[in-house]
Each structure stands twice: as C-alpha cells, then as structure tokens.
Design a protein that fits this description.
alpha/beta; Arc Repressor Mutant, subunit A; Rossmann fold; 7-stranded parallel sheet; 3-stranded antiparallel sheet; 17 helices
Length: 476
C-alpha cells in the first residue's frame, strides 16, 4: 500500500490510498445540508472528548470533519465555517465554550460558560471522587504559591491517608492518576527541576485548571474546616473579619463583651458562628471561649485580636492643671496589650495540639496594633504605648512559637471607619479621610478582614507588622 507525503500545512497528517480525500472541486460542491451534518459530527466528537476530559488537538478536529486529507489549503475556509458553527451550537445549546490552551501545538478544551451558583466547587464532573482529589491537589498547589515539589505533594496526600504509590480503594494508583491522567488532561503541569540528581519534579496548575477553575472557589474550599477565634468580633474590624471568614466557609468563635452585639451577630450568621461572651483580660473567660472552639468545632487554627479601647488625654494639661489619670492609662494597657497577650498565650496552647501540615504549620495569630504605635498624636500616650507594645512583642513571640509551627503577624491599621470614628460629624470624617495620601478616604473594615484572609493564605508571612494605612503618616 502506497502512502502520500504529508503536506506542510498546519494540522495535516498522513493519508493512505482508499481513505476519504477531498479535492478543491469536491469542497466547493459541499451543500449546506452536508455542512450542517459535519457541524453535528464535530459537536458530537467534541462532547465525547470532553466527557473523557481529553484535550482536543486541532489535527484531531480536522480528521473528525474531513477524515484523511491532502492539503490544508483545500478545506481551510470550509473548516473555519464548520468550527464556528459548532462553537455557536456548543455555546447556545450546552453553554460550553471552545477555548485554546496551547498555541504552539493548537490544543483546545471545552469550558462551562454558564453562570455558576455561589459556593459551588470548581471543575465540572465534581460528582466524581477523583475530581475531589484533583481539587485538593490544586488547592494545595495554590496555597504553596502556585508551585510545589512532587515530594511535598506526596507527603501532603500521605497526611490525608491517600498513599501515592499504592492502590487506593477509590483512586487506584494515585501517583499514576496524578502523573498520567491529570497531567495528560492538562489540569496539572509536571516540570523537571534542573540540576537535581536523582531528578526531581514540581507541579503547578495546568492550562485546563487555569481556564476551568475559579480561584475564589479554591479559597472557599481551603477555608472549609478552618476554625477561628475573633476577639472584639461584635463591631468594627472584628465584625468585618467574622463576617468574611464565615462567608468563605470558616467556623468562627466570636468573642466580645456580654453587652456587645456579638450574640445577635452570631445568631444571624448561623451554625458556623458561636458567641462566647468574655473579657480578654480574664484568663478564665478567654479559656472558656477557647473551650467553645474545641467543643463545637474541634480545634483552633486562627486567632484574630481586634478587641481594644482608646482614650485621648494629655500627659499633663497645663490649662486645666490636670495630670493623666494613672488608672485610665493602666486600663488601656491592660485591655489592648495584656488582653492581646492573654489571648495569644492561651490560643497558642490550643493550636499546638493541631496536626501540622506538610510545612509543619499549625496555626496563625493575628494582632491589631495601629499607626499610632509609630506616630502617636497628642493625647495618645496610653493608646500608643499599648499598640507599641503589641508591635514590640510580635517578633519575639513569633520566634517563641516557631518550633510549634505557629505564625504571629500584626496589622497596623490607619484611619478606618469603625464605630469610634462613625460617631464623628461627617465633615470631620471627610477631613480625616483626606489626610490619607491614597486612597484618600477612611479605610473600610472589610479591607482589614481581606488582609486577615491574605495572611492566613500566605504561609511565608511571619513575625511581621503590616501597615494598612494608604501611606498615611500621622501628624502631631
């Protein structure tokens, strides 16, 4: 049997005698009914490929339309017409979009282009257990900065009792599933690490995962099971943090004074939020709040210290011949600094019981200082001293807890629209906002909560004080 030589045209392949061959005259004689038939055949071909999660090469699409062929030039216009019509059919009937994921060797996938309901997991076919495994792997890679060594991945799966090198009752040989199936389907990319002997590899998201999978959904998935304690959670920065964490799937113990709105907020947020009335300066009451976390949710992964008070009193007011009341100074230090440390020490004790992840990470403690720790204004002696103390103890506590895999980070907010500032006249609040270089406004508590989430997601941030102030530097 003779063979004709392959054309140099894009996507062309070998053709043998006796197989379907289209000359220019034959192409021109294609009727509209024949074109529609080819469109239907291509749609079926693409749907079958998508069911198997197989990336679709342009050459295979050409074969499905024309069989074996002699020259790309002979069918270029007709092929484009058929593909465009097939694409419209997929979009209008199935809500699927044909997307190119590799331009060097033209390769395509179908992605779901229909609006997705909030809270749904990424990747279609999510009812399949192997897609659950894929989501876990994608989330792990995402949380590790979008690239992870294969050894770290296998260690992580081992912690979940999914053993890479052995037959698993659901997934079969997991190592083979990951390297052969997920990599071949373009969900994962496996890249050789140069200058390693024996050769090592790293995994990162493949083009299909980038197209099909929502980063928001991955964050929702990662947040599932996260247990947090938020002090001062009934209002201001604490309330925004509680609301964001619950919204993203975490379970939260809201600690605030019995007289606060914390109980009502917890009731509104539902079963994923529990209210623990407590004073942060009381070891007994904070211990009871942590017991709520352990009893209802099983552990503690994150503690956020937002409880605090402030006063504005000069050290000595010569006009009124009045000195700063010592009890007021001690009260601010006790609530803001001592209260924060009280929550830190007791939370760390509970976090130490967590099973570490592949990095040895067991938990995160987030504290709230203020730009007043660095640029205290007139009348802020007590407040600045308390916040400066939080800044000062951040690094040594991070070093204390490093062997346990517990991180410590402090946020130093600038001017935020909290209940303290909300009571000021609008003109005053606008004036304060204009003091911020950019954006020239008061901060939104939701932006503080967003930073808390970012700190929880980035395991490399530790022992640091992060200013959240729009480049503000307070004047005297």
């Amino acid at each position: 049997m003779s063979q004709r030589k392959r054309s140099k045209g894009l996507g062309c392949s070998q053709m043998t005698d006796g197989e379907e061959d289209f000359s220019p005259s034959q192409v021109e004689r294609y009727s509209q009914d024949q074109v529609n038939q080819k469109v239907s055949e291509l749609v079926q071909f693409l749907l079958v490929k998508d069911q198997k999660k197989m990336p679709i090469k342009k050459a295979d699409m050409l074969k499905s339309v024309f069989g074996k062929y002699r020259s790309c030039k002979e069918y270029k216009d007709l092929y484009s017409e058929i593909v465009n019509k097939a694409g419209r059919t997929l979009q209008e009937v199935f809500g699927l979009q044909l997307v190119e994921i590799d331009t060097k060797c033209p390769t395509y996938i179908l992605i779901n282009n229909l609006p997705r309901a909030e809270g749904k997991y990424p990747c279609r076919d999510k009812e399949k257990e192997k897609m659950g495994l894929l989501l876990i792997i994608l989330s792990f890679i995402f949380m590790k900065g979008n690239s992870v060594k294969d050894s770290a991945l296998w260690e992580f799966l081992n912690l979940l009792r999914v053993y890479p090198g052995k037959q698993h009752r659901v997934f079969g040989d997991v190592r083979k599933l990951v390297t052969d199936e997920f990599v071949h389907q373009k969900y994962l990319e496996m890249i050789s690490i140069p200058l390693t002997d024996p050769r090592e590899f790293k995994f990162q998201w493949g083009p299909r995962a980038e197209k099909e999978t929502s980063k928001k959904d991955v964050l929702n998935f990662v947040a599932k099971g996260l247990v947090a304690l938020v002090t001062g959670g009934g209002s201001g920065l604490g309330r925004a943090t509680v609301e964001r964490l619950v919204q993203h799937g975490a379970r939260v113990v809201l600690l605030d004074l019995p007289t606060s709105a914390g109980g009502q907020l917890a009731q509104e947020l539902g079963e994923h939020c529990a209210f623990a009335p407590a004073d942060v300066t009381s070891p007994k009451e904070v211990g009871a709040a942590l017991a709520v976390a352990q009893k209802h949710f099983g552990r503690l992964d994150l503690a956020v210290n937002c409880a605090g008070i402030g006063i504005a009193v000069k050290t000595y007011n010569s006009k009124k011949d009045k000195v700063h009341d010592l009890e007021d100074f001690q009260r601010v230090i006790n609530v803001n600094l001592v209260g924060t440390f009280n929550v830190i020490r007791l939370s760390a004790q509970l976090m130490s019981q967590n099973k570490p992840d592949a990095d040895g990470h067991r938990g995160l403690l987030v504290n709230t200082a203020s730009v007043a720790a660095f640029e205290g204004q007139v009348g802020q002696a007590a407040y600045s001293a308390s916040k400066g103390g939080i800044v000062g103890m951040t690094l040594p506590i991070a070093r204390d807890l490093a062997p346990l895999g517990i991180r410590v980070v402090t946020i130093a907010p600038g001017l935020f629209s909290t209940p303290l500032l909300a009571g000021l006249p609008e003109k005053v609040r606008n004036f304060l906002g204009q003091q911020v270089p950019f954006p020239s406004r008061l901060g939104d508590p939701a932006e503080y909560a967003h930073l808390v989430q970012a700190l929880a997601e980035n395991p490399m941030i530790n022992g640091e004080v992060v200013r959240l102030d729009g480049a503000l530097r307070m004047q005297p």
